[in-house]
Amino acid sequence: MTEETTAQEEPQETDEAAEETIPRVLPDDPILARLAEPFPNVVFTSFEPLAGARQDTAIVSRGELIAFVEAVKDAGFETFIDVCSVDHLNRKPRYDVVINLLSMQHTKRLIVKVGVPGDDPTVQSISPIYAGANFYEREVWDLMGIVFEGHPDLTRIVLPDEWEGHPLRKDYSVGSVPVQFKGSHKSS
Amino acid sequence: MAGEVHNPNFLLTTLDKGVSWTRTRSMWPATFGLACCAIEMMATGAAHHDLARFGMEVFRASPRQADLMVVAGRLSQKMAPVLRQVYDQMAEPKWVISMGACASTGGMFNNYALVQGVDEIVPVDVYVPGCPPGPQSLMHGILTLQDKIMAGEIRRSTGLL
Amino acid sequence: MSDTPNNTEGDAQAPTLEPPTGSADGSLDAAERRRVHDIWVAGTEEPDWIANATDEGAQELLPRDMDPALQIQRGIAVDDDFVDEPIVVEDERQILNMGPQHPATHGVLRLHLELDGETIRRVKPIIGYLHTGMEKTAENLTYMQGGTNVTRMDYLSPLNNELCYALAVEQLLGVEIPPRAQAIRILMTELNRIASHLIWVATFGMDIGALSMMIYGFRDREAILAFFEKVTGLRMNHNYIRPGGVAADLPEGWEEDIDGIFDIVGSGLDDYVDLLNRNPIFLDRTRGVGVLTPEEAQAYGVTGPAARASGVNFDLRKAFPYSGIEQYEFDVPLGKHGDTLDRYLVRMEEMRQSLRIVQQVLETMPPGDYRTDDRKVTPPPRKRIDESMEALIHHFKLFTEGFKAPAGEVYQAVESPRGELGMHLVSKGGSKPWRLHARTPSFAIVQALPVMLTDQIVPDVIATLASLDPVLGDVDR
Amino acid sequence: MDLLAYLPIALMFILGLVFAVAAMWMSWRIAPNNPTPEKLAPYECGIVPLQEPVERFPVKFYLVAMLFVIFDVEIIFLFAWAVRMDEFGWAGIAAVGIFMLLLIETLGYVWKRGALDWNVAHRARYRRVVAPDAQVEEAA
User: What's the predicted TM-score (pTM) here?
Assistant: First the structure.
């Protein structure tokens, strides 16, 4: 089962230019198949865990994110669940914005992943499509520093206003106070 | 209070002891519940463990009517000025109990987000250990504070009483 | 680009979410009375007519005449909620803080209210006053220690957090959990749901004015906490459900304790129903207050009892069953109007259903091991250590460096008392998670507050907030 | 003129005075008192307000206060009657009836004019739940 997840790994490197090495396999699920036709270079992978739901992931490039999310919404994924971000630090598109959507009608989940480069961390905001994405995108901006264009109110939500830096980035230290007893971990 | 009593019908005490006694027996805590310790503080205040036995009949929300501030929970950097403001707006004489490991020393969250110990912001009288401290430990902390008040002097007396 | 979810089961007369019709060209003067409420926008300077403003500069309420395009982009154009002419005087406007230190905000939530007399014209929830940086801390704790960090997020239902974290890690490891451990997990999380709903009933009653509910709720909850203390050793923050099973087996005589809980909580529930359900004051305070329509619930990601009260028929325990819960039968209560009364009725019914599940677990508790015997994941029993060298090595490695999880990205969701609690776990093969994001239900509930609270009077805000039961540890993490 | 008869009253008066003054003096001497600026600032749930809160309160609060005063004073008048109700007989009841009628009439007027209406029932969301079938013309 583990090679399944590793297979999931390398498509991220190539999501910018979808090479031909990965055969264009349409997902077996009818809804996702219908969704996949109009978007040739969106890579669909799925991961069958031991417990819980089958996890379908769609790796999208930044350019067509808005179009794809709108298509996903029309395909029946009407419930917005989550937007979060992952800092891969030394991977080529450094950040991953992970959008989690749920379809209550078909009881299906879809995770949309967008690679965001480290030097210009901006991506389109999906709050016009899902109003629920507002606070989540503000939190991602606040903690990870990814700017969402078109977001109505991109201010800090969780940290005090005058805070500098984005703590969840891997190069931001934990900021722990060194504890007095000997041999404790230095303030990493 | 007063040690030896010649005549059992007389109760000899000093003004300090008398006033301190009145202060300790009806301290109203200001609700400053932040996180998990606040749930234990509410459980202590509810019927089963009943703080009213120690004179803490009711948790006053506004600092104007409170004598004791129980900081129950983890204090984040964004909440620190609020804590200081509420502490300043409490009327003297006022005391602070720092309830739980997170309030006393930042607890298990030694990171950027928490103030590592409430005593960096407000003077603390009693630290209650535990994560969260059970109702019994909180009550023990309150009794310790009452003994501390009984021992202390009420005000620097300036000559003429 | 109107934002109209094609939702089928919303009842007919609930409004769909389209931007105001009169604004094809974006100008709003046509429908003067149908003023559009934005939720909040900041970053533009404050107009002079707002009498005063409190601090936190960047997060001020936006002036009323904001750019219509932004309103359309908002997606949710909450129509002015008045049917006939509103009795609201425009210029007597006041900005108040229902601030972090407030008895009725269930923690350190701050509501930035713009008031017209008692009517609330605009609300802005400001959070972050309990931000503990848990997601950053999670990256420095091994998988074994992660439970202690995660269990302090939603401090009213710690066992649900631990279960979600444990399931996510087990998905990565692909380890098989013995049936007894799965049954114990369901037993503990359902009892935790009842304890969490009991606190909710206590504070909900107290906020509405039934002060004695606070005493009853906490009194009944003590019975469950005593059972938790007996099984896990702690009243809260147990770290009992760990990757690979549970920390310890159930003590002898746990069946009698559960029967004791049935009597106390069962009779307690009947008392609350007699006390509240036909009480005219309670009904007046809760009917029609804080209405959330099914489309808004889905658009904002509100799940759990708050969404089920609006008629959204979705429960994770039925849709995506986990940890063997599909073998117990229980039903999912649904409301119709999505107001505070329906949320109350849904939660009371949920407590009864949880009691039913605990009853079934009590009857069908399988024997066997309470954690997996794959010694790479769970430590060997204590006495084995001094018998075999290999057990000692396992024990030593597990507690110093922790086990290594294969690389991968996993999302696991669990039905917590407040809604869908999900853990997005990314691992790069080390013994510490590379990234752990917790999708918490209260965050979505707080975000949907403006939609429910606009044009209400202040006492209704307290009733609505109490019925939604947000936990601020959940919101700020 | 036996001033002595009035001695108890004088004593009571003096005692009252002494007790009041002693209590005030005791609290002034013993209770700590340092009015810091924060303490004098208005309490806004812990947030430091930039400016003083607005002085112009909406008129609706003033209306409710006035109504309370009117009906409270009305009750006080009733006390005098209630104490000796049986002696006054029907004449008493008639007098009080007229007095009460006047005030109930004002209550009716005020109720109709909407002073007691906190526009809870005017909200579409509230109407849809409380009276779903009432065909009220929705705003266009």
Answer: 0.84
